[in-house]
Design goal:
Length: 196
């Protein structure tokens, strides 16, 4: 039986995320069927959900306009996993210091948009991530930084700043795990419980 893997396909590398979910599922002896989601009605049927990067205000506006924001919150409240990356993390957090972004308030943390610089400041580094035995090749593109964390677990830091967190069934990263062939972050988010 396949798990229904919803990928919010508003912006960002949603196809790369879909491929990473399939690789992670295979690595954990599971089968996942990625579905691109652009409007409400499909999220309630999903077993797992992914909110990719892009531009946080545009993503936020689309989610609210299409009625998807409430469905994402209900998904998480039901204990189903959500992976939110880069701009997806900004939207999922409780505050990004930008009133144009309507937050889902799913991650007890505040973020600063584009904290690691502009597109030309993009970089890759290898991170120690709680739950992974070997370092993860993290790609940072116009990445946010996590300023303050409340009741959530910090999974990885860079230069002393949290860049990956887990809050219940939500795993959020400031970086883009889909831009490598390494699907372990997707595996950690969707196929390994927080207690493992």
């Amino acid at each position: 039986m396949s798990l229904m893997a919803g990928v919010i396909a508003v912006q960002g590398d949603f196809r790369e995320h879909a491929a990473a979910i399939e690789r992670a599922a295979r690595a954990h002896g599971e089968r996942a069927e990625p579905v691109e989601i652009r409007s409400s009605g499909t999220i309630p049927d999903c077993d797992l959900l992914l909110l990719p990067g892009g531009e946080s205000t545009a993503i936020s506006n689309h989610l609210q306009r299409e009625g998807m924001g409430e469905e994402i919150v209900t998904h998480v409240e039901a204990g189903k996993p959500l992976l939110a990356t880069c701009a997806g993390l900004i939207v999922a957090c409780r505050d990004a210091g930008d009133e144009r972004v309507e937050h889902l308030n799913l991650v007890d943390a505040t973020v600063e948009r584009n904290a690691f610089g502009r597109q030309r400041d993009s970089f890759e580094t290898r991170l120690d991530v709680t739950g992974l035995e070997e370092r993860f090749p993290a790609v940072f593109i116009r990445a946010p930084c996590i300023d303050e964390t409340g009741d959530c677990e910090v999974l990885a830091t860079f230069d002393g700043q949290p860049v990956a967190v887990r809050d219940g069934p939500v795993l959020g990263t400031a970086f883009h795990p889909e831009l490598t062939d390494d699907a372990r972050i997707h595996g950690l988010a969707f196929f390994e419980s927080a207690d493992e």
